[in-house]
Structures are given as C-alpha cells and as structure tokens.
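User: I'm new to structure prediction. If I give you an amino acid sequence, what do you actually give back? Let's try with this one:
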Amino acid sequence: MSMSLAAVYEGRPGQLALRELPAPELRDGEVLVEVLGCTLCGSDLHTIHGRRETGTPVVLGHEIVGRVRSSAGAVRDIAGAELRTGDRVTWSIASSCGQCFYCQRDLPQKCLTLFKYGHRSGSESAAAELRGGLAELCLLDARAAILRLPEDLSLESACPANCATATVAAALEAAAAALSPAMNDWTGRQVVVTGAGMLGLTAAAMLRWRGAEVWNIEPAAPRREWAARLGANPLTPAEAPAALARLNEGHGADAVFEMTGAPEAWQLAWPALRLGGVAVHVGAVFPTAAWPLPLEQLVRRQATLRGVHNYAPRHLLAAVEFLKHNDALMKPLVTTWLPLREANEALEAASDPVNVRVGVRPTTGNR
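Assistant: Good question. You get back a string of structure tokens that encode the predicted 3D arrangement of the chain. For your 367 residues, that looks like this:
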C-alpha cells in the first residue's frame, strides 16, 4: 500500500505530529496530487494556536501546488483543459456542489455541503485525512475547482494563489461593483488598504497593477517596507489620519480594504472613506471586539459596506492571470521554505512578522 507522510494537527495547540497515512483508492472524478509546496496562511496559525476551531485530526494547509499523480476518469480544469498525469495544478480552497441554495446565488464558498481543504477533519479512515497541503499527497474530490498552472510560474507565487490572491480578486470585484462596471480599471482611484500581511500586500500589488494609488496602514516597520516595494504609500497608524485626510483633495478614499480584522484598523480607515465610497472587509475571520458604526453616517455618506469571505472559481482564474504578469514582484513574499519533516519549525517561522509567508514542501529540492 502506498503511504504519504503528513504533518497532522491532533488538537494540541502549537504542535503537529508526523504520521504515515495510506494513499486513498480513487472514486470517479477524484484526483490524487503529489504536493510540491504549501504555504502557511494566517488561518492555519489561528487554528494551530486555538483561535479558530476545527475538527481533529486534520492535515492543515490549503495554499497548495501539486502535480497530478492519478485520476479516476477524465477530469477537466475550470478553464476547460483536460488534466493529465504530471500537470502542475492548484485548486480552490472550497469544493462546492453547484446546485444548492447558495451555489445558485453565486456563493459557492457558502455551499450547503461545502468541503474546505486543510480546514476540516476527514472521516474515520486515515486515508480520508489527506485533504491538506502539509503532506506528500492530497486527494481532490470530484467537485474540486482545479486549475492547471504554467510551468514557469514560480512556486512562491503559485502557492498563495488559491487563498490570498484569489480572495483579493474577489474583494476587488466586490468593490468595483459599487464604484464602476469596469472591474479591472482602477486608474486614478485613491485607495486605503489596512494591514501588510499577505492579504494586504497582495491587495496593494493588485490595485497598483490596475492603476490605483494605494495607501497602506501597518504598525510593523518590516511590513511597511514590503508595502513600499510593492508600490504602496506606507503609513504608521499615527501618520494615517493626517495623510488620509488629504486623499482626493480632501474628499477621502474611493475605497477601503480592511485586511486585518482589527477594530483599531477599521477605526482609522472608516473616517477616510469619501461620500459614495466602498469599504470591503476581508480580514475578520475570527471573533474580535465590536466597533460601533453610527448608522446616520452610513446613510448620509451613501457608503457601501461589503464582506468578502473566500471566493468563487472565477477569482482563482483572475488570481493566476495577475500572477503570470507579476511573478517577479510577488515571488519574494515567500521568504522561507522548510521541509515537511520540519513543519513545527515552519509554524514558528510563520509567526515571525519578518516572514510574510513561509512555505513547506516534502523535499527541499521538490519544485
């Protein structure tokens, strides 16, 4: 029987256990991939440190790139290409049915029978646990939204595509719907992004690529340096009120993207929004303290508030299209790679704010 090494979260905060799990027998439409690399997302850290609940045991990690090892029957990717053994692929964080109440209302990420890779425990069968990126193998179900990747797209850029990059693509689409029908043209727009984690930095880069001027609020100096490298105007929280008051000749920002989930960040960003502007919230993925929003201000300012959680398959396509044009820009954000057997050390490195993203791969030479 073929086996796969995996780093399994068994419910002990801050600790992963190395386990050998049997490779599954494929059912119709399923795909087995050899994991090339998996980067550690903030939600993985929230889970491992007990801030986010999940069933256990579970193989964490969802920012995954792999190679098709085998499939049960013919399988096509979301761009219509037939997948073959050896194809380099990524896939949506969520597998959805396409038929339920929410799938029919363009919210496949809220499917009533949703499965999320790296987030949920498998069945009692050990093989069913191979659904996350901290392993040598990953099983994709028949509903998976798979996308074949260009061979020349770096692993560093490609791994976060199916989380941070695709989520930012969804956030920009949501904001553009409130501002203009021209989703891809942000020329001349003045935009505020809070936070310079992977979400905030990706938003800054994607907005700059689409023509916006971007101001990034971030308390940590190393992260502000990253924002500047990606073309944003970095601000400390202390600098933000005066600087943002000058946007659009004093009218305020066209859009605000709140990428931290911190009430303090929203408290800085909300006053900066112009009349008729749009604020998109992405970062609040676990409970935080409430911050009061006077409804009279919402009405008189004709503001639009949107929440974006995960994304639809079209946003993964948009993410990879962005990365194909910006690989050299985004590649350095993955600052460290460690082998799968050092997954616990990788978690420690990922908690250091100097590292925007830390990657794990089965062998250090496996690209």
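You can read the tokens as a compact description of the fold. Here is one thing that stands out. The mean pLDDT is 92.
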